[in-house]
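Predict structure. Chain length: 209.
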Amino acid sequence: MSFHHVRRLALLAALGALAACGSGGGSGAQQAIDPAVRAFVQDVRVIEKNDHVLVLDTEKGMIAIELRTTKAPITAQAIEALAAKKFYDGLTFHRVEKNFLVQTGDPSGGTGAPSGAKKIPLEINADLTNGIKGAVGMARPEDDRNGADSQFYILLAPKPSLDGTYAVFGQVVKGMDVAEKIEQGDRIRTAVVVQGLPEQPKSPAPAAQ
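Prediction complete.
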């Protein structure tokens, strides 16, 4: 076998390895989706076409959260990256306050020990508000505005007083009834991100007078 032929085979092998990595890795890669999860979101329509949906399969059922990638890109992408690493799989809802919120994302179960996740700077967008039931935002230490890392909450009731200090990055679009049944200690079986869901139909513009 000639030297040039050996080099050509080595190059083809390297290109094949790169293609394999590109198809299954990276924060933008689609995770393997369980058929039950796919069935759960089949009727979900996202607010903006580039938004992805985080599906929490909990002991009480599934919750679909639209990640507002366009309006809160830093936070949404950070949460998506953690989900891709299976960070949330097996974690509990360590804080539950009826008529207020449920909170998860702490590997220590609520002790406040470092999670090992990267810090996420406070990302406030005036279009995203805590004043809506089902709003999903980042939890953080009260004395550190840029101290969020992996913990997030789902609001069970509007809480507009949190606006400006706690960053909203998502909205429950299906399974709010499940979120309301969550009890302290309930676990997340899996957390996966679904991409490519259809966009909600836009309301027609009002006719000119």
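Summary: The radius of gyration is 20 Å.
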